[in-house]
Amino acid sequence: MKKYTDSGKKDTRSGFGAGLTALGKTNENVVALCADLTGSLKMDEFKENHPERFFQVGIAEANMMGMAAGMTIGGKIPFTGTFANFSTGRVYDQIRQSIAYSGKNVKICASHAGVTLGEDGATHQILEDLGLMKMLPGMTVINTCDYNQTKAATIAIAEHKGPVYLRFGRPKVANFTAEDQNFKIGKAVQLQEGNDVTIVATGHLVWEALQAAETLNEKGISAEVVNIHTIKPLDKDAIVKSVKKTGCIVTAEEHNYLGGLGESVARILSESHPTPQEFVATQDTFGESGTPEQLMEKYGLNAEAIVKASEKVLKRK
Amino acid sequence: MPTIKELNDLVIQVRRDILRQVHKVNSGHPGGSLGCTEFFVALYQELMDRKKEFDMDGKGEDLFFLSNGHISPVFYSVLARSGYFPVEELNTFRLLDSRLQGHPTTHEGLPGIRVASGSLGQGISVAIGAAETKKLNKDSHLIYTLCGDGELQEGQNWEAIMYAAGNNIDNLIVTIDLNGQQIDGSTQNVLPLGNVKEKFEAFGWEVVIINKGNDLESILDGMKTAKKKTGNGKPICVLLHTVMGHGVDFMMHTHAWHGKAPNDEQLENALAQNPETLGDY
């Protein structure tokens, strides 16, 4: 088994901030808009370096999305920053009409996604955003797993023409992917090679999937772990290739099982290679207040849940 | 520069285009379109500094965004007659595979359209974004946008209105079509807008009023005044008092023709009131 080490816990939102800072220096067309969450989104450095390219819109997300659409006209590449809840559900129609349907080159950057937002509770913990965004024609949907990958993705999406939803989170989590990685939109990353079960994970669940694979290995089960950072377009070839070898799959995401990564995987497999699948995801529920670790455990979003799902799906082969 | 007579001829021809478009497909929005005909003609024929060829980025030219996208018939007619696409294409309004969708969109690549609109309340935000980009690009051209009055009931407008004043978006002229009507009745009955002038002023905007919004000379005067006020740190709002359905007597002063097409007889009557000037498509 490959060994992955945590180089020191960091939050994915800081990866976004670092990526935006880097972009500020290399791409003068990059502009940033923020709805009163500059510190939370780690956009301070970009703001300090390029005050003329930073737009504080106040607590007015609908206006922010419309403005971002308008800013593309004339060649700017707007990055909007707010929490995932206010980046999607609150402004769905603005994104739908002014950005997606209008084909605007806006990068919707969303922090504090999922239950790991923690103590603020369900009003702020969106578990439906991936579904909302992946249903929009032309929208690219990315959910990164650690600091390094979020930084790389932030830089990569500036080069992609078209609307992108980039989702990341609040808590400090293991930082284990390479600092100098080449982030390719739509390309899955195989982290562990295995023969018995495929585990496809996204976001914070990728590290948990690696931990699960180690536990499974101790039990004599060989798990293949695939990091799906891009939920749309989904890397069909990588998923089908893996399940052709293993014969069963577990999907893992910090999102409702309705509308998330798991359903996208199920659709691909039902068309190409029907395969027993188990879903590690929230079960059509809202979140609640608690620490990220407590919530991950309560809602079945950790390594232990992935191990259980893997053992269950193996029996269905 | 076209003469007032030439502009008035175009106004009448555009009216005919509006009526014939909605009649053909028995759908669309003639009322607001007819009410804003003079405004569109003045904007595209005289007020805006625009390039002949359309490109999305629109650098080095004035840009217009239609927020109340349902008045697409007037927008399409004036765009076609201003050279953006063949006038004959008005024949495809609202038909399958047409670039002239029910509400304007960039999605089918129709020249002259820079953002989709139809779901109301989004145009001012988009216009502000484009205005900010003009400033970043050191492009001194202006951004124009048109909104319906009923549309001001959408909350996003007030976010945008607050932003524009707070951030000195002074290369922007937002025109409000004050016809006092919306789908369910008069704005007064559906949800009163209060004193729109005082509201914009309270938010920090400069307001210009055009009382005769269906009179070309009044529009040109008022809009030129508005243009002169740009560049002074404040966004500009033009309150354009129009009559819904203007130019067709049985469609005027009522919300009944907001989104209803005339039948054959009504079309004939309406066209007779607006005899052909530049030639039908």
Automatic annotation (TrEMBL), chain A:
Domain Transketolase-like pyrimidine-binding: 10-175
Name of protein: Transketolase family protein
InterPro entries found in the cross-reference section: PDH/Transketolase (IPR051157), THDP-binding (IPR029061), Transketo_C/PFOR_II (IPR009014), Transketolase-like_Pyr-bd (IPR005475), Transketolase_C (IPR033248)
Source organism per UniProt: Jejudonia soesokkakensis
Top-rank taxon, per record: Bacteria
Pfam families: Transket_pyr (PF02779), Transketolase_C (PF02780)
TrEMBL record, chain B:
Database matches in CDD domains: TPP_TK
Cofactor: thiamine diphosphate
Keyword Metal-binding found: no
Assigned keywords, A-Z: Thiamine pyrophosphate
Domain Transketolase N-terminal: 14-268
Residues in the signal sequence: none
Matches recorded under InterPro entries: THDP-binding, Transketolase_N
Coiled-coil ranges from the UniProt annotation: none
Family in the record: Belongs to the transketolase family.
Annotated protein name in UniProt: Transketolase
Native source organism of the sequence: Jejudonia soesokkakensis
Taxonomy of the source species: Bacteria, Pseudomonadati, Bacteroidota, Flavobacteriia, Flavobacteriales
